[in-house]
Amino acid sequence: MTGHSHPAKVAVFSLGGTIASTKDPQSASGGVAPRLGAGELVAAVPQLEHAAELEAIPFRQTASGDLGFDDISALAREITLRFKAGTSGAVVTQGTDSIEETSFALSLMVEGPRPVVVTGAMRNPTLAGADGPANLLAAVQVASSPAAEGLGTVVVLNDEIHAARYVKKTHTSSPSTFHSPNGGPLGWVVEGRCRIALRPVQNLPTITPLTGEIPQVALVRTALGEDSRMVEQIAHLGFAGLVVEGFGGGHVPARMVPALETLAGQIPVVLTSRTGSGEALKETYDFHGSERDLLGRGLIHGGSLDGLKARVLLTLLLADGASTSDVTEVFRSAAELG
Questions:
Q1: Higher pLDDT, 86 or 4
Q2: Annotated catalytic residue, options 2, 18, 262, 324
Q3: Smallest Cα–Cα separation from 164: which of 103, 243, 121?
Q4: Pick from 162, 155, 15: which is nearest to 74 by CA?
Q5: CA 20 to 30 Å from 91, out of 19, 229, 233, 313?
Q6: Any catalytic annotation for residue 18?
Q7: Cα separations (Å) of 139 from 91, 102, 194, 197, 249?
Q8: The pLDDT of residue 338
Q9: pTM of the model
């Protein structure tokens, strides 16, 4: 007798964003805003009933730029509860503007082998060629696939599967906006099947979802002619940490160095590159403001994490009570890819 396997259980959490945006019939502006919930998004894709057993959860209804660490921490707790109850995978729909940050935060706060898949859309449902339904279907197909177990949190759009740690939004409007410059996609979806070609090294700690006050971490990007005035104000403004996006391999103008050294003696200061790909250097250049100079003055090496991802990691670590030495050790481990 042939057995029939039960469909995977997948929880779909909606947070708003373009994928859930429609026009207000009472408004004359013609613009769209997040109005659709998880149930409506799922109902709009009939093929989903064959992909998995779905639970639709309207979690937030907002533009992704308004999401905060408290929202993502609450979401991580809810996903963890579903996993403990036997859910096979989770899908999160949200605006694409902050996906590279929210997905990375989820990857740090949701423990275990079950997949968390974050997706969205670049074309809202009122436009021809809206990509939301296809992205949602692909996301559910990945979340319900045994092949996705152990990947951690991934981002699925345009039938590509990207690791949350590496994915970046690279275009303001293109449906193929998401890329992973440091490694490429982990796999893809074809004919409804999840194909995994690469598996990332998992070498970052799991951080308990936050419940208390979340410290603010500043992000400063170096630019031509930059001086030290912004850096000098960081501590006075109450920031608990700083991420610096340096030129090239991790360099800053010489006139910024004294302020950065002083600040690094007070709060964690992480050095990354503003280029968005590659890895911050450690020992190539040796001039005033070079990576050797800055790391020797107490700045923390950011490895291959860009400024946005480094800020997420630093924020969660500080909220979890990490000391500067703890932060240094986690970033050192993060830089070791295997």
A1: 86
A2: 18
A3: 103
A4: 15
A5: 313
A6: yes
A7: 6, 16, 9, 17, 35
A8: 43
A9: 0.94
